[in-house]
Amino acid sequence: MTQTPSVQESIHTTQLHKHPLQLLGLILLLAGFAVLIGSLQMGTYRLHPQVVQTAVSDSAHQAVLLQLLEPLYDKPVDSDWQLAGVLDKAFAHANEQLTQNPINDYWARTYKTYLIKHSAEGLPAERPGLLLFLSIGLACLGGLLYILPKLRLLPGIKNNHIFHSATTNRGWIGWLLGSFLILFYILLYFFPYYITSWMLMADPLALWLKGGEASEWFFYGLLYTLAILVMGVRMLIKYRHSKYHKLRTGSVMFFQLAFAFLIPEFLVALNQPYYDLKNIWPLNYDLFFEYKITEFLSSGVLGLFMLLWGIACVVIGVPLMSYFWGKRWYCSWICGCGGLAETLGDPFRQLSDKRLVAWKVERWMVHSVLVLAVLMTVAVLLTFFTGNSQLLGVDSYSLRSWYGFGIGAIFAGVVGTGFYPLMGNRVWCRFGCPLAAYIGLIQRFKSRFRITTNGGQCISCGNCSTYCEMGIDVRWYAQRGQNVVRASCVGCGVCASVCPRGVLKLENKGGKARYGEVKF
């Protein structure tokens, strides 16, 4: 007797057997990724004295390096690793002569990146557009081909075996992906001269957008934006039954493309300060740095507007918007970090730690970073206005340098994104983002936003807690009929979308009713 398969078995079978377009997309994605990695070893390098003169702006540095690097001129070097080693030795010898003005780590990194990039010969330098298409272009096309057939599946989050997947449950694929992301951020922040081939590939687009060449940050912005756009399509398909999710996904895609990528580059093309208008202090921690304030004030009316806009966002915009809509207006609708977490990081949202100890660690860490950001900003402002770099015995320049290294690079970059496949997609937002801490305090005590619950309808399935990217045990609140009012909640609304009984609802109402009634 033939048995008819159940609905769940049919869905499972459909998921195991990939659509032909998905198989083609996977092949193109892996091919593009392989070309991207392989491009780092393409070509050779040949240093010229003209490149040294252009790269080294300091006259003392330039004179010494031109002499020390003379044996290397017009001679082929096999790899960037070999050229970087030669340059390191040259810098060390140069510093023996430059005792008053040595080449520090920042200038060494800057010089090496420019020298290696402009000494390149071969495919990345000669056919950058072709290589860009064969790598990132094919990867994006493959990603879209893999995503689009999901239209044949039911919308929303389902029991799709995420806890049995090597990708989405800390399996070997997840570990490989996490390791790659961590390595990428380490190279980006600390060793950009090893990824000059990627900068060369982005040069044609940078020349078209801003009239200049691509830096490591332009390439990163391009990659970041494409990741949000491609994975944003996945989110739009996955949550196509929900107007709220479609709107917020479209919002983060728009703000990343327009405000975080295109507009800042257009400003550079117009000889104006590079500025992301949606990036707010203290997340934008260098807003009040001396060089940034000087840049604003020397750029006329537009520069003054940028500075006043940044101040207005901190003292007026954030409190006002957070009062009415909580953290969701920024963290789930505008923020670039949140945009990447909601799109690229969505497959890993169930990995967030829901334990009470994680919540305790989160509260201490995120508010400690906020306090540190405030102290650093006070110190650099005092230095700007008084010229004194000492605050309570701490040098403001050292403080901002260590903050940039520890929080801006290691925490926000290496850990914040690299740990997506290992600890979930909101590691930075939960444990490190000072702006999230600032908005969270307003949301917890002075906001109208809350998630209401109907405890009488809760069946304790746990979907809400499982898929909460911020590690909130939503089921605990739902079982008691208690409204969810937490400083960490970013209002993504996924808990309400996965609830099979409609127990949860996002609302904006004030008064004591915001906290609801605890029922045991």
TrEMBL record:
Cellular component GO terms held in the UniProt record: plasma membrane
Pfam entry (one): Fer4_9
InterPro entries in the record: 4Fe4S_Fe-S-bd, 4Fe4S_Fe_S_CS, Electron_Trans/Redox
4Fe-4S ferredoxin-type domain residues: 449-477, 480-509
UniProt keyword list: 4Fe-4S, Electron transport, Iron, Iron-sulfur, Membrane, Metal-binding, Transmembrane, Transmembrane helix, Transport
Molecular function as annotated in GO: 4 iron, 4 sulfur cluster binding; metal ion binding
SUPFAM superfamilies associated with the record: 4Fe-4S ferredoxins
Annotated TM spans: 21-40, 130-151, 172-195, 217-237, 249-270, 296-320, 364-382, 402-422
The keyword RNA-binding belongs to this UniProt entry's keyword annotation: no
Stored Gene3D superfamilies: 3.30.70.20
Organism superkingdom: Bacteria
Keyword RNA-binding: no
PANTHER family, per the entry: FERREDOXIN-TYPE PROTEIN NAPH (PTHR30176)
Stated name of the protein: Putative electron transport protein yccM
